[in-house]
Design brief:
Blueprint (H helix, E strand, L loop, with lengths): L10 E8 L8 E2 L1 H9 L3 H8 L9 E8 L2 E11 L4 E2 L4 E2 H19 L4 E4 L5 H12 L14 E4 L5 H22 L7 H11 L7 E6 L1 H6 L3 H7 L7 E8 L9 E5 L1 E5 L19 H16 L4 E11 L10 E4 L5 E4 L6 H12 L6 E6 L3 H7 L4 E5 L2 H14 L3 E3 L4 H8 L6 E2 L8 H10 L7 E5 L5 E2 L9 E2 L4 H13 L5
Parallel strand pairs: 1-4, 1-7, 7-8, 11-13, 11-16, 12-13, 15-19, 16-20, 17-18
Antiparallel strand pairs: 1-2, 3-4, 5-6, 9-10, 10-13, 14-15, 17-20, 21-22
Helix pairs in contact: 3-4, 4-5, 5-9, 8-10, 9-15, 10-14, 12-15, 13-14
Family: Belongs to the peptidase M17 family.
Protein name: Cytosol aminopeptidase
InterPro entries: Leucine_aapep/pepB (IPR011356), Macro_dom-like (IPR043472), Peptidase_M17_C (IPR000819), Peptidase_M17_leu_NH2_pept (IPR023042), Peptidase_M17_N (IPR008283)
């Protein structure tokens, strides 16, 4: 055995499954078993004497076992072949791998080891996602930064799945970056410039339009403009066209994202506590734009259009006042009784505009209501949809990604609460406090005429405290990977939608 001083400064993460009974020896993955044989069973021996059986998501580190690796981190994967858990609505094997690999990579990062090879653990895509998602932390504005760790696949099993997992994770990390950065760094103009730069290398099949205030006015997007006018930052309507299917007249999937780069609540101002988190109120825009960047990198055979109305919601002498009436692009008038219900105002005009593309389906994402957070917390994104087919694709996609969705009602019961209005066609808040996420969705439905539309309220999943073990504390970037997986499934569905 080589002395640790002679070992290369590289880490290795290896997985072990729990035995079926608590007293039994752990089961090594193929990669761990091969490595252990290479060092004459030393790893298995050390693991047995170094403590109790390794629990799911926990790590144990060994030094100096091999000249190629200064640090070996063994990670607990839980029981083998658990598969889809019908009670949890996700693939438990994939989630266990993501969590375990993330924990192992963070251990390597804490040891300031510059590179690591990762055991695919039977699912190279999940392992790659866990590695990159687990290492991400927004520290761009700090002098002291986390050490950079170069992540590589150990061996050659599942190399294509590994590459796919890296692309998925990079997409979610882009959304996390955009959401986490301060609002004075990610203004509407800057947001659009970052996305344009990310898509520059795909210029052959991606077109980016950064629409200014004069264009928004010409489109008669009075609802969107009413929110933007309270801020000195100019609004931007970012329009992305990804053409992955060259067939003539192939209708696009339209993604719409709420892009409020800072939300003070306007005249109906929010409490000061935790208002800083409202820098991430453009989470819908961040996730849908990141999903399109990911789709372009994956070369999905699908046409996608992304629409993101970007602005700030601030109080000023020009801001919306409670009781004001504004007119949306489709001519409907809206009584603004709460200026903090601004997300639905900017989305209304984007939904109207989306219909001009003869869309195959429209999916919008928005950190829309605190009521959604109260209803589901961070367990799942709430989905309101008029289409069983869209719902099925979103649901099945979320089982694979572990970034779950849950269907919510679009009853006429909620529609009446926003359409029975004193001064206008619609009120931007419901008559009653209860069911706030549902009345917000009912409001948006008034701007939809296509048969396949889904609204994703992502307010509850905007941040991560400790609920998702492979994400650090902060803005989550959810549900970017589910949107990508959904787009893949839609590209394969040529009949139902």
């Amino acid at each position: 055995m080589q002395r640790i001083e002679a070992a290369s400064n590289k880490g290795l993460i290896l997985g072990v499954f729990a035995s079926e009974n608590e007293e039994g020896a752990p089961q090594f993955t193929n990669a761990a078993d091969t490595f252990d044989k290479h060092i004459s069973g030393k790893l298995r021996e050390l693991l047995a004497i170094s403590g109790p059986p390794l629990k799911k998501g926990k790590t144990r580190t060994f030094h100096g076992l091999h000249q190629d690796f200064s640090n070996i981190v063994v990670v607990g994967l839980g029981k083998k072949t658990v598969g889809v858990n019908p009670h949890e609505n996700w693939d438990e094997d994939k989630e266990n791998i993501r969590a375990a690999v993330a924990a192992g990579c963070r251990q390597i990062q804490d040891l300031e080891v510059p590179s690591v090879e990762v055991d695919p653990c039977g699912d190279a895509q999940a392992a790659a996602e866990g590695a990159l998602l687990g290492l991400f932390e927004y520290d761009e504005l700090k002098q002291k930064k986390k050490p950079v760790v170069d992540v590589q696949l150990h061996g050659s099993d599942g190399i294509e799945a590994w590459k796919k997992g890296l692309i998925y994770a990079k997409g979610q990390n882009l959304a996390r970056y955009l959401m986490e950065a301060p609002a004075n760094h990610i203004t509407p103009t800057r947001f659009a410039a970052i996305i344009e730069e990310k898509l520059k290398s795909f210029s052959n099949n991606v077109t980016v339009h950064i629409r200014d205030k004069s264009w928004i006015e010409a489109q008669e997007m009075g609802s969107f403009l009413s929110v933007a006018k309270g801020s000195d930052e100019p609004p931007v309507f970012l329009e992305l066209h990804y053409k992955g299917n060259s067939e003539a007249n192939e209708p696009p999937l339209v993604f719409i994202g709420k892009g409020i780069t800072f939300d003070s609540g306007g005249i109906s101002i929010k409490p000061s506590a935790n208002m800083d988190a409202m820098r991430a109120d453009m989470g819908g825009a961040a996730t849908i734009c990141s999903a399109i960047v990911t789709a372009a990198e994956l070369k999905l055979p699908l046409n996608i259009i992304g629409l993101t109305p970007l602005c700030e919601n601030l109080p000023s002498g020009k801001a919306n006042k409670p009781g004001d009436v504004v007119r949306a692009k489709n001519g409907k008038t809206i009584q603004v009784d709460n200026t903090d219900a601004e997300g639905r105002l900017v989305l209304a005009d984007a939904l109207c505009y989306a219909h001009s593309f003869n869309p195959r389906a429209i999916v919008d994402a928005a950190t829309l209501t605190g009521a959604m957070d109260v209803a589901l917390g961070s367990a799942a994104t709430g989905v309101f949809t008029n289409s069983h087919q869209l719902w099925n694709h979103l649901y099945e996609a979320s089982i694979l990604t572990g970034d779950r969705v849950w269907r919510m009602p679009l009853f006429e019961h909620y529609t009446k609460q926003v359409t029975e209005c004193q001064l206008a066609d619609l009120n931007n808040i419901g008559k009653y406090r209860s069911g706030g996420a549902c009345t917000a969705a009912a409001f948006l439905k008034e701007f939809v005429t296509v048969p396949h539309w889904a609204h994703l309220d992502i307010a509850g999943v905007m941040t991560n405290k400790d609920e998702v073990p492979y994400l650090r504390k902060g803005m989550s970037g959810r549900p970017t990977r589910t949107l990508v997986e959904f787009a893949i499934r839609l590209s394969q569905d040529k009949k139902s939608i």
